[in-house]
Amino acid sequence: MNSQLLSLAIWVPILGALPVFWIGSERRALVRWLSLLVAVAGFLVTIPLYTGFDVSQAGMQFVEKTPWITRFNVQYFLGVDGISMPFILLNSLITIFVVLAGWEVIEEKQAQYMGAFLVMSGLMNGIFSALDGILFYVFFEASLIPMYIIIGVWGGPNRVYAAIKFFLYTLLGSLLMLVALIWLFLEAGGSFSILDWHKMHIGMAPQILIFIAFLVSFAVKVPMWPVHTWLPDAHVEAPTGGSVVLAAIALKLGAYGFVRFSLPIVPDASHHLAPMMIALSLIAVVYIGFVALVQTDMKKLIAYSSISHMGFVTLGFFIFNAIGVEGALVQMISHGFISAAMFLCVGVMYDRMHSRQIADYGGVVHTMPKFAALFVFFAMSNSGLPATSGFVGEFMVILGAIKANFWMGFAAATTLILGAAYTLWMIKRVVFGPVGNSHVAELTDINGREFLVLGLLAVCVLAMGLYPFPFTEVMHASVDNLLKHVAASKL
């Protein structure tokens, strides 16, 4: 299927950011409405990717292929399958929410703020649709720049430290990936096509080296334990919109890298090193859950919660059964909705009280009842409440893990207890009880814009929890094809 839909998904937000930059921050109303228009347009052009998607086909669809750097056979090669397509829609939808979230909050350099998110949205779509190794790498690295600027310019008091730490961690990991891409290019006879790399037969020793090179890059992005320490700092210092995109989309890039690169290109090494990956995933699920329990900052607690939930994703990928892999993908989408909502909720309170400390709140339900209802709903979803999206992915991964090994599934299931413990304990101290102090007593409930953003996210979380079939249907063929490929290549 040939079309320009993927190019539109990439370039509409990027090119749409140019007039936003050009207008400048003096005309704030025009900047806001133009940014929203570009974000909505960026989402609308992705909808045909879903409506026109053939769920029975396992291969790439909406393919675009044009020579780019002919000397090295680098191509502008785009395409999506049932694994990558949902994340383009998720990314484009979250961008709308981020623009709305920064509507009144960002007072300094608003045009640059909105434009940075629009550029990042296009770059993220490029990552999810790139089928050329160098094109993927360019988008992968370029996406660091707007996030670095967002944290460094609009972040908290320690924003420079957090931005540099974020940049160095992710950049250094990616350099090893570049070495692996060049080795694969030479081994494939001068092809940077990721699909060509999937067909290669590589010996076990080089496979393990390539797997480790990819692991270093993607594990930092997920982030997996023990290379997770940059994430809490980045989240705490980032503005609300930065935290939303970081949790909802940026963390998914590393997990996506495992299913697009590690599993299909080096399947034997993936099987060989699966016990290590499972162990690291379970440490993230259990240990980081306990770390989240002792946090006093709401943003830091949700950041550690994200690391724990993403441990489910990597666990699902490396148990090599369909329900586990599909559960991991569903968990990625669900986490995109829930983490975005949780950070937006913290942002709503921070905008009013300029504090993220749990101890500074108490009894918020008395002064912000509409907000409290939504916050509690998202907290329940984060805890894995049945009928919410947070339950579906985790339940599928636990089923897949039990199918592989009962004790592995049992260890993974502990997150349902830990997740409820740290999330609901935070809710108890922040939302319920008597009014904590005079500042809480003066809080005003959410306005129409805030209610719209949180309400739409609540609809997404509930709809996915009650009826996940539209999400899982598009994945089936691609996941089955991936697992057949990985099994067939097993030594």
What does this structure look like?
By secondary structure, this protein is mainly alpha-helical. Helices cover 74% and strands 3% of the residues. It has 24 helices and two strands. The chain has helices spanning 5-23, 28-44, 47-51, 85-101, 110-129, 133-142, 144-154, 159-187, 194-198, 204-221, 230-237, 240-265, 267-272, 274-293, 298-317, 322-353, 364-367, 369-382, 389-404, 406-430, 438-441, 448-466, 469-473, 476-488; strands at 61-69, 74-80. It has a two-stranded antiparallel ribbon with strand order 1-2. A hairpin with a 4-residue loop joins strand 1 and strand 2 (74-80). Helix 6 runs antiparallel to helix 8 (159-187). The radius of gyration is 21 Å and the shape is globular. It starts with a helix and ends with a helix.
Summed up, the helix count is 24
Summarize the helix and strand pattern as letters.
Answer: HHHEEHHHHHHHHHHHHHHHHHHHHH
What structural class do helix, strand and pairing data support? mainly alpha
Give the rounded overall mean pLDDT.
84
Distance between the termini: 34 Å
What is the CA-based Rg, rounded? 21 Å
**Strand arrangement, major sheet:** 1-2
Low-confidence runs of at least 5 consecutive residues: none
Helix content: over 70%
Shape: globular
For the secondary structure, the number of strands is 2
